[in-house]
Amino acid sequence: MSNQGPCDATTLGSALGLPESCAASAVATLIELLLLRHLPGNPGQLVAVAPDAALAALVAPKEAGLRRQLAEIDRLRAELTLLTPFYAEGRRQCQGRTPLTEITDLKTVVGMITEATMRCRKEVRTCHPGGGRSPALLEQAFVRDRDMLRRGVRMRTLYQHTARYHLPTQEYARRMTDEGAEIRTLSELFGRMVAFDAETVFIPHQDDLDAAIVIQEPSTVTYLCATFDHAWSLADPYHPAWTESSARDEVKQAIVRLLAEGMKDEMVARRLGMSLRTCRKHIAKIMEQLGAASRFQAGYLARVQSSGPASAAAGGT
Questions:
Q1: What is the dihedral of CA 208, 148, 180, 214, to 10 degrees?
Q2: Of 198 and 311, which is predicted with more confidence?
Q3: Which domains can be identified in the chain, with CATH numbers?
Q4: How confident is the model at residue 1 (pLDDT cuts 50, 70, 90)?
Q5: Model confidence at 100, in pLDDT bands (50, 70, 90)?
Q6: Which of 10, 35, 254, 288 could form a cystine bridge with 30, CB 3.0-4.6 A?
Q7: Distances (CA, A) of 17 to 2, 10, 22, 108, 253
Q8: What is the 3-state secondary structure (H, E, C) of the chain?
Q9: Cα 260 vs. chain centroid, distance in angstroms?
Q10: Cβ neighbourhood burial of 131 (10 Å; 0-12, 13-18, 19+)
Q11: What is residue 4's predicted lDDT score, i.e. its pLDDT?
Q12: What is the C-alpha separation between 260 and 202, in angstroms, rounded?
C-alpha cells in the first residue's frame, strides 16, 4: 500500500493475492500494530503508516509509564534511605546490651549482680543448688536482697531440700521471709541461676567457678524463667518449723528414687546437692534399714514398700 493511495480491505486482499477471510485477519493485525489506519472522513478506506511512526505510537505510552514507575521507585528509595540512620540508632538502643556475655572476674560478677539488683523493679528469681551457702555470703545477700524487697520487688528463691538442715540457710530463710521473700525447696534443681525482671539472667560458667555468663537474649531468658517457674510449682514452701528430720526424710526419698534408676553415688550426691561422704552415709543407712545387698536393690525395695502390697504383688509377677 505504500506505493498506492488509500484502498479498502477487499482491494488490498486482491492485490496481495489473499482470500477474503485471510485478508480480513491480516488487515486487523496491521491496524492493531498501527501500520494501517482508517482514512479520516472515509473509514472504509485504509492508509499505510510508516513503521517508525507506528513504533513510536506503540512504544511511547509504555515508555512513559515505565519512566513514571522508575521515578516512583527512586522516590521510595530516597525516602526509605533517609530512615536507615534512625532505624540503626533504635536498634542500638534496644540492643545496647550484648545478648550473651562471659565475665571471668569474680569481682566484676559480684558488681554486675549488685547493679542488676539495684535496677530491678519487678521480680527476681534465684535458684541455689547445694546444701547451703556460707554465712558470709548469706549475710551479704540478705542486706542486698532486703533493700530490693523494700522497694516492692518480688523475690522467689529455690533451694534443695538439703539446705533445710543448714543452720545459716535456715536463719537466712527466716529473715528473708519476714521481709516478704518467697522460699521453696525441691529435691533436685536444674542449676544455679539469678534472673532479674525476666530480662537479665546470670548463670555459672561451666569451667570457671569465679566466672559467670550474663544472658540478655529474650528467647533464652524466657526459657530459663519458664524452667524456674516449673520447678517452683513442684517445690515445697518454706516453713519456720523446718526440721532436720523432715528434710532428711525427703532427701531419703530422693536418694531411693535415684538409686532405683541405677544412678551411681557420685551422681546422686551431685543431683541432690550434698557431699559424696554425706550421700554414702544416707545410702548405707537406707540399705541397712531395708536389708538390701545392693544400692539398686535398696531403691527397688524402698519403692515397693512405699507403693503398698498391691504394687509389690504386681512387681513379683
A1: -30
A2: 198
A3: 9-49 (no CATH), 100-237 (3.30.870.10), 244-315 (1.10.10.10)
A4: low
A5: confident
A6: 35
A7: 17, 10, 10, 99, 108
A8: CCCCCCECHHHHHHHHCCCHHHHHHHHHHHHHCCCEEEECCEEEEEEECCHHHHHHHHHHHHHHHHHHHHHHHHHHHHHHHHHHHHHHHHHHHHCCCCCEEEECCHHHHHHHHHHHHHHCCCEEEEEECCCCCCHHHHHHHHHHHHHHHHCCCEEEEEEEHHHHHCHHHHHHHHHHHHHCCEEEEECCCCCCEEEECCCEEEEECCCCCCCEEEECCHHHHHHHHHHHHHHHHHCEECCCCCCHHHHHHHHHHHHHHHHHCCCCHHHHHHHHCCCHHHHHHHHHHHHHHHCCCCHHHHHHHHHHHHHCHHHHHHHCC
A9: 35
A10: buried
A11: 57
A12: 34
- Provide mean pLDDT across the span 65-75: 90
Does residue 303 surpass a pLDDT of 90? no
pLDDT digits (tens, 9 = 90+) for 189-232: 888 999 999 999 999 998 888 899 999 999 999 999 999 999 99
pLDDT at 246: 58
Predicted pLDDT at 184: 93
Bridge partners, 7 (sequence order): 46
- Positive or negative CA dihedral for 270, 274, 275, 281? negative
Grid cell digits, residue 209: 567457678
